Amino acid sequence: MTSAATWTSFIKSIASYNGDLSSLTAPPFILSPTSLVEYSQYWSEHVDLLLEPNFIKKIDNEPIELTRMIAVTKWFISTLKSQYCSRNETLGGEKKPLNPFLGEIFVGKWDDNSINKNLGETILISEQVSHHPPITAYAVENKLNNTILEGYNGVRASMSSTALNVKQFGHALLEFRNLNENYLITLPPLHIEGILAFSPFVELEQKSIIQSSAGYYTIIEYTGRGYFSGKKNSFKARIFKNFNDSKKKENALYTISGQWSEKSTISKGSSTPSSSKDEIFFDALNNKPQHLTVKSIDDQHPLESRKAWLNVANAIRIGDYDLIHSEKSKLENNQRDLRKIEEKNNSKWSRRWFDEIDYSKFNNNDNSLENDIFINLSKLAHLSIKNVASGVDDSSSKNDDVDTMLHWRFVPENFDNETEIKI
Ligand SMILES: CCC(=O)OC[C@H](C)CC[C@H]1O[C@H]2C[C@H]3[C@@H]4CC=C5C[C@@H](O)CC[C@]5(C)[C@H]4CC[C@]3(C)[C@H]2[C@@H]1C
């Protein structure tokens, strides 16, 4: 069967599809040899921008916290091309990632000489903390500058007539511990366009926010081709003094607009910057991503993603469907056996470097609440702390049918005490 015919039959098979993406058996040519647990690296392919707020000096008539919020917004915009376009660049289009098994890990580092900015070593720690539903937790840590980004991500998907709609769950927390300043970052919904046209690609939609502990609040609105801007991967970001000011666009202190996969410009105030006369904010075409260094497969632990999936990834690369199926089945059967043993022993897989924190246990008079940066930043941004889709505000009716408040948190001492896995 030609791949176009296979693709058409595949599209028919998912027409009435809703829910867990991993249950899809996609044809081999749409499969990526990379596991979803590796996608955490896309948060830090511009390490210099991630760490920049540590080096900002106060400029005249502007609070330094505002200058830092502009820098954090620039770093966040710089992550989007890697997050959502890297498969187009390397594989010719969006692909279906390998579905990580419970406990699958991915570690790597951006060492000094790769970015030669005397920033010190930055490490990536990523762990599949849940298989049903798939949830990846991650941390990016730079000890020299006492800076850490941690977060987790889960997705829920549904098919419309022409696109796959994806809601993201989770959030990211960026902590500058030398500055005693931190940020909450929410994740935008997205949809996969071009599925019927047999060349799928991601387009972001609606909005995501960045909330600073200093009060500053950035809202980023996404549009794509066919919207008023007409260009794919478009966005408009507005930086406000705080959440309440964001109710009126004219309160914006800065406005940034353009394409997150190409160029964007920035101007003071609430007017939309023009690409001609205003200052370039970020140019994704001329800022190549900094790729992290990963140990060779021989030096990897069996739980490390590229070692665990090696045979499946090689089968995908040669497009041998039967071999993909047989190698994948070996790995999945091994996982099923592990779960059966755990069930028999009434034990469960222990997460290595992350803990699931139940925030519903904290009540308002519990003193451990005020030091939790997620609680404080969510309050400033008026965001729900329930397990609703990322960025849902605390007054939304979407909260009514969700009660749980379970969020994954990095446990640095677990990683510091790690003996088996080397970066
Ligand atoms: C639905 C039919 C089907 O399987 O078609 C295959 C198509 C390639 C579309 C489905 C897959 O598209 C992939 C895109 C993936 C997202 C890309 C980037 C990110 C950001 C990262 O920080 C977190 C994960 C996330 C949201 C990926 C989640 C999984 C996505 C949607 C893949 C789809 C299975």
TrEMBL record:
GO terms for molecular function: oxysterol binding. Gene3D superfamilies: 1.10.287.2720, 2.40.160.120, 3.30.70.3490, 6.10.250.1430. Transmembrane segments: none annotated. GO terms for biological process: intermembrane lipid transfer. It comes from the Eukaryota. GO terms for cellular component: cytosol; membrane. Belongs to the OSBP family. This is Oxysterol binding protein. It comes from Pichia californica. The lineage of its organism: Eukaryota, Fungi, Dikarya, Ascomycota, Saccharomycotina.
